[in-house]
Amino acid sequence: SQTIHQWPATLVQPVGSPLSLECTVEGTSNPNLYWYRQAAGRGLQLLFYSVGIGQISSEVPQNLSASRPQDRQFILSSKKLLLSDSGFYLCAWSFPGELFFGEGSRLTVL
Amino acid sequence: QKEVEQNSGPLSVPEGAIASLNCTYSDRVSQSFFWYRQYSGKSPELIMSIYSNGDKEDGRFTAQLNKASQYVSLLIRDSQPSDSATYLCAVNPSNTGKLIFGQGTTLQVKP
Q1: For testing the chain B interface, which of A4, A38, A44 should be mutated: the one with the most B CBs within 10 Å?
Q2: Radius of gyration of chain B from Cα atoms?
Q3: How confident is the model at residue B40 (pLDDT cuts 50, 70, 90)?
């Protein structure tokens, strides 16, 4: 069966520091991968999606970037975090239209 | 602007009752619809998918879809305290994983 893992689960970062969140999927090949963010009191917002290695589409202009260096690896990054980057970051994969989430990474920017 | 609207609640029901959660969407071309359950501090979990008009039942859960009215609902029969969570309605306008989510309805089931 397919599983999706994210890490770290929780992190607290100062404003201006870099960020790297990692996500890996097991049990499937060439998955469509997604990064969503859930800010406090707000709904889930799609940030990036990828249909293959090196193929990234951005949905919202922001301080973040994404990369897909391997088929089942998806990374969310920032060079300098802002307070507004705080939230619950969720990696997901889809098959074919249903979306399945990882455990999430909770980011607090201070 | 494609939107999915849900009443934020909280919706409070006694244990054993039927909980009814509602959702409306604005994009008429949407073809697939989903309900996710999210416990506090956890990631959303897919509990129901529905693609055609009518009812779809899975255990204590029934999803209802009315495309003409652009309306999706989730019924939970014999509600249990463990059903207490936030329920997210999501719409897929393009058969990808680019879902549009509502803000969620918080359900409280009281023993």
Answers
A1: A44
A2: 13
A3: very high
For residue range A13-51, list pLDDT tens digits in order.
Answer: 999 999 999 999 999 888 999 999 999 877 899 999 999
With CB atoms and an 8 Å threshold, state whether A46 touches B42: no
CA distance A63 to A107: 14
Of A31, A66, A69, A36, whose CA–CA distance to A51 is shortest?
A31
- C-alpha span between A85 and A63 (Å, rounded): 8
Picking from A7, A86, A9, the residue whose alpha carbon sits closest to that of residue A41 is: A86
- Number of A to B CB contacts under 8 A, please give it: 54
Three-state DSSP at A25 gives strand
What secondary structure does DSSP assign to A41-96, as a single string? TS-EEEEEEEEETTEEEESS-SS-EEEEEETTEEEEEESS--GGG-EEEEEEEESS
**Residues sharing a CB contact under 8 Å with residue A12, sequence separation 6 or more, in sequence order:** A107, A108, A109, A110
Tell whether A56 is within 8 A of chain B (Cβ): no
